[in-house]
Amino acid sequence: MDEVTEKEQQHIFESWLSQHKGLLFKIVRSYAFTAMDQDDLFQEIIIQVWRSVPSFRQESAVTTWLYRIALNTSIKWTTKERKHSRTENREHLQYLLLQESKTPADERLDWLYEQINQLDEIDRSLTLLLLDGFSYKEMAGILGITESNVGVKITRIKKVLITKIQKG
Amino acid sequence: MITMEFEELQKIWDSQNNTPLYAIDENALHNRILTKKRQTGHITNVSEWLSIVVNLCSGGFVLAINYSSTRPGLAMYLLAAWMVLVSLYALTSRIRRITREHQFNRTLKEDLNHAIAMATYQVRLSRLMRWNMVPIAALCLIGMWEAEKNGWIFLLTLGFFAMAYYASGWEHSIYQGKKKELEVLKAKLEAQQ
Question: How far, in Å, CA of A56 to CA of A70, rounded?
Answer without folding.
Answer: 14
